Amino acid sequence: MPSDPLHKSLTSYAYNILGSYQDAKDVVQEVLLERLSRRDDAVENEKAYLVRSVINRAINVKNRQKKILSGYPGNWLPEPIATEGADYDLNQKDILSYSLLTLMEKLDAKARAVFILKEAFDYDHDEIATVLGITVENSRKILSRARKQVSVGRSGAAARPSSAYLDEFINIIRSGNTKKLEEVLSRDVIVTSDGGGKAVAAQHPVEGRDTVLLFLSGIYRKFYQYAVIKKGMVNDQPALLFFEDGKLVNCQIMELDGELVGRIYFMRNPDKLSALQSALNSASDDEMRS
Q1: Is 4-151's fold the same as 163-289's?
Q2: What is the pLDDT, as a whole number, of residue 255?
Q3: Does the pLDDT at position 273 exceed 50?
Q4: Where are the domains of the chain?
Q5: Which of 219, 280, 288, 290 lies closest to 85, judged by CA?
Q6: What is the per-residue pLDDT for 115?
Q7: Which residues share a beta bridge with 241?
Q8: Does domain 163-289 have CATH number 3.40.50.1100?
Q9: Spatial CB neighbours of 272, under 8 Å, sequence gap ≥ 6
Q10: How far apart, in whole angstroms, are the C-alpha atoms of residue 109 and residue 125?
């Protein structure tokens, strides 16, 4: 069995490809069990073998996931992962930003793997070719296309709101001041919600300042008027966490366009909030003991 650091690295590889923590854990577990059942088979480099096996298994699972998602109720967003004081079985430092994970849904599974290995783990093309069983030239071409696809419609890296910015946003929500809310939204703001068919969520992205203003004003008033709102870090990005009776019911991640809100992601799917809730509970318990 691999050491704990290696296990965490393997899970991080799988999560970045899949965007699902549970699926990542399943992939790693399957690979380790298969390796354990064939422990007498000679392997020149155990770590390289496991990394290659996990990445290729994750690619296969992602391809199946894409087919299944054709029937997904509404928008599909990656599962948010706490990257501040969390107790996950992965390396938080290796986790890609939520904005980038979301953009990478444009890519097919192999392109996603090439992009991640190069951009997140600094593999060279010889190493990528070895891991994925492709040529070096093919690796270069896939990366070039992937970078273009990910950068479509983007002028640069998504700006992240500061803690003070989030405080002000919370105050605007609490006050119900639609004029103030309108002033912080960009003209082309987009809101994407994932309820997974298990929580109320918009079935399609909501676009444009006027439409988004009405949408946000309505849901904040209807669903979150009495919610406890806390600040947190998910996938190395600031987030607002909404709780009702101690239960996490929404994780809101924002990107800024200059000083204005350009994109908002609402994760309301309870299945994709359960691990985040557990990590937050664990962090809270640690704080109480310290």
Answers
A1: no
A2: 92
A3: yes
A4: 4-151, 163-289
A5: 280
A6: 94
A7: 230, 251
A8: no
A9: 20, 77, 79, 80, 194, 196
A10: 17
Report whether pLDDT(181) > 50.
Answer: yes
What one-letter code names the amino acid at 236? D
Beta-bridged to residue 240, according to DSSP, are 231, 252
Domain 4-151 has CATH 1.10.443.10: no
Amino acid symbol at 210: D
Predicted confidence band at 160 (pLDDT cuts at 50, 70, 90)?
A: confident
State the chain's maximal CA–CA distance in angstroms: 68
pLDDT at 156 over 70: no
- Whether 1 has a pLDDT exceeding 70, the answer reads no
Q: Tell me: pLDDT of 260 over 50.
A: yes
Residue pointed to by tokens 């979301």? 102
Any residues with CB less than 8 A from the CB of 258 and at least 6 apart, and which? 159, 186
Tell me the average pLDDT across 89-93.
77
Alpha carbons 181 and 168: distance in angstroms, whole number: 10
The dihedrals phi and psi of 127, each to the nearest 5 degrees, come to -70, -40
